[in-house]
Amino acid sequence: MENSQSKWGILYCPKGNGNKQRERLQRVLDERHVAYDFVQSESMDSVERLVTMLINNGYKTIIIVGGDSALNDAVNCLMKTEKQVRDEIALGVIPHGVMNDFARYWDFKEGETEKTVDWLIKHRVRKVDLGCIRYTNKQGEQCHRYFLNCVNVGMIADVMNLRRQARSLLGSRKLSFIVSIFLMIFHRMDYKMYLRINSDTINRKVMTMCIGSGPGYGQTPSAVPYNGMLDVSVIYHPELLQFFAGLWLLLTGRFLNHRSVHPYRTREVVVEEAKHALVGVDGRLLGKPVGPFQISVEQEVINFLIPD
Questions:
Q1: pLDDT digit string (tens) for 77-110?
Q2: How far out from the chain centre does Cα 16 lie?
Q3: 157-173: b (≥16 Cβ within 10 Å) or e
Q4: Per the confidence metrics, is the pTM higher than 0.85?
């Protein structure tokens, strides 16, 4: 019988008709004679516990069936282990979440289960970067959180918060996102920020800022998750018509062309002040850090399974 080192440890994060999707995935795995063990998350809070369990039980290939937030939990678990242990583990993804931005960067697409599993079987590994935000929480504790995709400060993090609140009332993920975008028209759209990026100092009102090691949900489209750099988009407060024009450019992949968008490439961003601005990390709300915080990058620290 094969031990855990030669099996895939698969963490399944259900959404919608979870049983149907799980059965399809298991059928594809069985047809290809993949040795695996399945665990399923009961809630968002259980992902880190289950990934830690897979690591501690010696699985060398860990596959996340979920979105960006679940991947974020997985990399943060991996970064808590010793480097020697982490270097022996390969992390893969089968996209199955509301936001699958990091998976899409590598051309993994939700619903293409057979194609994705075939790619993962080939076990092609690429070392990828992680961004890291270091901050002080409300209890005065020094904290840090790693990210594969991006950190959002300001309006986009506010949208995440509104979406979470709307979802608790409406139930539907897609409907809650649409409602939250609509509510933003009547919501605060600028924040007093004091930023240091490379040799530049920004001390003014900013609508939102995205710091991306990855594509940043279209806000850092030129970011590369293996060059040891962060792409930063600082968006000043546009007029209402410009705001909708910016949304159109975001949807059509031309976001950096908007005149309110100011792009940078750097190794570190220092946020000296971001009054009243919420912070989101890989699609999940972090809240409001107390005082200054820093975002930096660590180059090629995670083994990630990529396509041909």
A1: 999 999 999 999 999 999 997 789 999 999 999 9
A2: 20
A3: bbbbebbeebbeeeeeb
A4: yes
